[in-house]
Amino acid sequence: MNQFEFYLKLGFEHIADIAAYDHILFLVALCAVYRLEEWKKILILVTAFTIGHSVTLVLVSLELFSIPSNIIKFLIPLTIFLTAIHNVIGKEIESNGLKMKRNYVMALFFGMIHGMDFSNYFKALIMDPSDIVVPLLGFNVGIELGQLLIVLFIVGVAFLFLNFLKVKHREWNLFISGAAAGMSLISMLENSFW
Length: 194
What we know:
Blueprint: H1 3-16, H2 21-31, H3 39-61, H4 69-93, H5 96-125, H6 133-163, H7 169-190
């Protein structure tokens, strides 16, 4: 196995690890407002998230930026909570075009926060920060592939509920966003740093 494949596998396993459910929960919350037919918007949104965490991965790995892990452990569920709340109240106060732009910015910024958590893991793996390009590329491609697989599953489940069980989209969004908000609130309380 070459270096790229090694880091690709690690990135994929890191995002798809059920023990790291906070990243999965964020993707669930991020996709709750979308239908399968909006796959292009979803793809752009997930890519914005990937770009965000890639930027932070580079900055932290090269020791240009750092935030204590206890703060990151609080900020990650906060991003989930804010996304879930935005899913519920954001739609009513915005037009569709503006909502998408705001969602992209949120995904990008929140991706940077999630990237801080990825970076601690990634930084521990690389031996030489000057030789970061291939590991970084492999790790990010692995994370992106894992995220796309998770998103495909999430949107597939939503498709079944919306089209076959005839659940209304608003009810689906309220249920998924409410569950994500509740779980993230518990995590914030468990990880509060004050």
